[in-house]
Write a structure and sequence with these properties.
The protein is α+β, with helices and mostly antiparallel strands. The protein has one domain. It contains seven helices and seven strands; from the N terminus they run βββααβαβαβαααβ. The chain has a four-stranded antiparallel β-sheet with strand order 1-2-3-5. Strands 4-7-6 form a three-stranded antiparallel β-sheet. β2 and β3 form a beta hairpin.
Length: about 220
């Protein structure tokens, strides 16, 4: 009779160290996710516990909350997705678009510092005695993020189409001929990419992995 092999479960805390600083949201170690890319201020790390993504140095909860507040202010001007004032809409790093996109995910916008998930938001706002109220899929931003993520798989630059539409911060390709080709590809592939994006995002939303989430923050 074969002997049962017991697998030793290693806690996340065992990975803590200078190369894996604590997550600003939950304190668990951050692990490498994406190396440094054009338009980003450093490599991207992620928390395996709450899912928060961090570009560059780990920062702290106070800085992450300030960026979350900026998302909330932006959501107030997008009534279609926010639904009402006081909501925050974030591109979901735990979403399906981020998973299939990787370094080509549309959420990796130029100047982005923190990449939120519903769980990381819940842990962050607990620092100021808030809770996350009703959370729902934000279809407008979710579909756009999936669409641009698919387009990023065909271009040298990143978020070219959103930049042309004034809906995001693009990361253009380094050479003029690449930028011209990216513009052509974005137009050529826009409709086919949308045809794929719609069912993918709908499936993701059904599985609670939508590309953008609207959450209402409430005081305890």
């Amino acid at each position: 009779m074969a002997e049962a092999v017991r697998k030793k479960v290693v806690p996340l805390e065992a990975g803590a160290g200078p190369d894996n600083p604590p997550c600003p949201a939950c304190g668990e170690p951050l692990f490498g996710w994406i190396d440094r890319r054009p338009g980003l201020d450093g490599p991207v790390s992620r928390c395996e516990s709450c899912g928060l993504g961090v570009v560059g140095a780990p920062g702290d909860a106070e800085e992450a909350l300030r960026e979350l507040d900026r998302c909330s202010a932006a959501a107030s001007s997008r009534s279609v997705d926010a639904g009402n004032s006081g909501a925050v809409v974030v591109l979901n790093r735990a979403g399906f678009a981020a998973w299939i996109g990787g370094a080509g995910w549309a959420g990796l916008e130029a100047g982005t510092r923190y990449l939120f998930t519903p769980e990381s938001v819940r842990r962050l706002v607990a620092n100021r005695d808030q809770v996350v109220g009703p959370a729902r899929w934000a279809p407008g931003r979710g579909l756009v993020a999936m669409w641009q993520t698919i387009l990023n798989g065909f271009t040298f630059g990143r978020n070219v189409a959103l930049g042309a539409l004034g809906r995001g911060a693009p990361v253009p390709a380094g050479r003029p001929w690449q930028r011209r080709l990216d513009a052509f590809i974005s137009v050529l592939v826009a409709i086919p990419a949308l045809i794929f994006a719609i069912p993918l995002e709908l499936i993701a939303a059904t599985l609670r992995r939508g590309g953008a989430i609207s959450m209402r923050l409430e005081l305890l």
